[in-house]
Predict the structure.
Amino acid sequence: MNALARLSVNQMTVRQLSLPELVSGCWELGIPGVGLWREPVRSYGLDATARLVRDAGLAVTTLCRGGFLTAIDPGERRRSLDDNRAAVDEAAALGTDTLVLVSGGLPTGSKDLRGARERIADALGELGPYAAAHGVRLAVEPLHPMYAADRCVVSTLAQALDLVERLPADQAGVTVDTYHLWWDDTAPAQIARAGAGGRIHAFQLADWTTPLPAGVLDGRGQLGDGSVDLRAWCALVEAAGYTGPVEVELFNRRLWARDGHEVLAETAARFAEHAG
């Protein structure tokens, strides 16, 4: 079997490449999928992006990102819901069935984690039927607890599943990301739970390397450079019944400073070595 048959490279891994460079580079290396981000897609043009990827014979595996659903202010909350509906429309236009959601951190001045999570649940209840009507699934991504205050109050798969299981699986599921979950010894049981319910909508790989950079956002290690047993995680997700794309999503300034085509080729080789 082709070691790259399930590989998708998230656009942020090689953000120094333009969309045409990313697409042509994936095509040349035999990488069948790409994960895209809304901002560069909008800059290049939604229809132009869809045509570019389609003409190269690649699949858009995910669109990042929706979410940020914890606002208390009614106007801010309404704008967030409208933006997420727009993200669903964009995902459908790109031909992907998966919109990744980063749920949002605590509103300014709040310390109410439970209340923030309930507002996420309420928002999912509004957005889920809209997404399903457009052939798109919402994939809630738990982020490492270090992001709970400002980016994502959903820190574990158990918390994510407790939210999405209020909706049908064709409306909402989870993103399993090794960078955010590798530390959690309850994750294997929660992956099995997610698989049994058909809730694993996206699977992403990144390694954990230390020390973390200032701001901690750009610390995702290249596959094989850190502490995560990537092959074991792939086995867990496959045992849960997931057979979809495996997306490599790296935020790393050292990688961004290098030649993008070199990083893309290295990522494919590391995937084949550690996960393919």
Notes: The chain has a mean pLDDT of 97. The beta strands are 7-10, 33-37, 59-67, 98-102, 137-140, 172-177, 200-205, 207-208, 220-221, 246-248. Residues 74-94 form the longest helix (21 residues).
